Amino acid sequence: MGNLAALAALTLYLAAQPAPVFPARVAAGPAEDYMPALSADGELMAFVSNRAGAPNIWLMKLAEGPLQLPRRLTSGTAGEKSPAFSPDGKWLAFVSSSTDAEGDLFLLSVTAALRGEGPPPAERLTDGATADRDPVFTADGRALIYSAADKTGGPPGLWRLNLKSRERERLTADGQNPAVSPDGRQVVFVAREGDGGGLALLDPRTGERRALLGGKGIALFPAFAGDERVVFTWYAEDSNNDGAITIDDRPALYALDLARPGAPPYPLTSTESYALFPAARGDTVYFTAREDGVVDIVSLPLAGMAPPQESAAADIARARERERYYPNRPALGILAWRAALAARGEDGAALERAGISLELSRVYEQAGLLREAETLARAVAEQFPSARREAGLASLRATLLFARRTGKSPGWLIERLAALEKEWAAAKS
């Protein structure tokens, strides 16, 4: 009887705790469905699928529920990808390899497709002189902005194609994955910086450009969520412990608030699955999830799997609860701690941010991500000297992690450092 009462009490307690928000499948099946594109009114979704053989563009209705039967829009055998709706929802641009193995831009009528007369004819917009990718419409629907590279091995840059005159204008010397804000005033794109990928903003009217995100990690596939928020895929962690962040690691979705310059990216998903090709409308983000070899399109509230809480204490409590309830799913705990840190921003209290960073370093270590744990501990020691106890503890942790990771330190030194770490932890409490 006592065991039953205890179980009942535990069940009630767990039910009262805030549960993670998990993505919901939108297009799922044995085939691979990916690269969602949404009409401006949110009623239609175009996507790429190999459900009929080669990758083609398909269309489905979302307005009456996500399980509307998809309709095939293209029938090429060489592969099509990167669909993009015009602002009025009447046209769809996409990339096809049917005429050029490296990609040309095409345009088809969504209106004709909705009449149900089979795949509508598509008009070729570019020739084989360049490898063309990533088309998006301008806000007035009169032009496409896309990335193109010459076939001599040069880097891709952004171009604008006037749909009436077919005149092309080069916008940048580098860049790919452009996205246009709903008001048409900004273009966010991936700008290459060294071996990694950063984000940049371009004013298409003046050509003025500024960096948005750089440094550690690889950012890809940015998409606007309103005029002042950008959602993107970010390879931010060395999840395979090989000493470098590459596309072999697991990415997650992040959001940047353009109204808060300098604010850190906020994590929307964990790294339990690969999160790619986001597209946002209203309060929902759609994206491609790949897990255990299955590729599907899913949706998630724009606030993410760990929405910001009202206070640092609430964020920290949620992170501890995630660790406790999901001990075999460390990515959920990492997400919650990363969210707590991002919610504090660059202007958060040093002591608060240092403490959360140390907790995140601990969770990384428990997940076996020793390089991430060590790097973060060193950053705390260097960036928060005013938080003396946390900085000292971080320095010791970094040394311990280095010794554990490299195996070069004598055992007695590791034992001594572990004892000192416990002393610092006791002093902190």
Architecture overview:
- The protein is an alpha+beta fold and 429 residues long.
- It has 2 domains: 24-301, Neuraminidase (6 Propeller); 345-428, no CATH class.
- The protein has helices at 2-15, 110-114, 312-325, 330-344, 350-366, 370-383, 388-406, 411-428; strands at residues 24-27, 33-38, 44-49, 56-61, 71-72, 80-85, 91-96, 104-109, 122-124, 130-137, 143-150, 157-162, 168-170, 176-180, 187-193, 196-202, 209-213, 218-224, 229-235, 252-257, 266-267, 274-281, 284-291, 294-301.
- Strands 1-24-23-22 form a 4-stranded antiparallel sheet, with no helix packed on it.
- It is elongated and about 75 Å long.
- It starts with a helix and ends with a helix.
- 44% of the residues are buried.
- The model has no long low-confidence stretch (mean pLDDT 87).
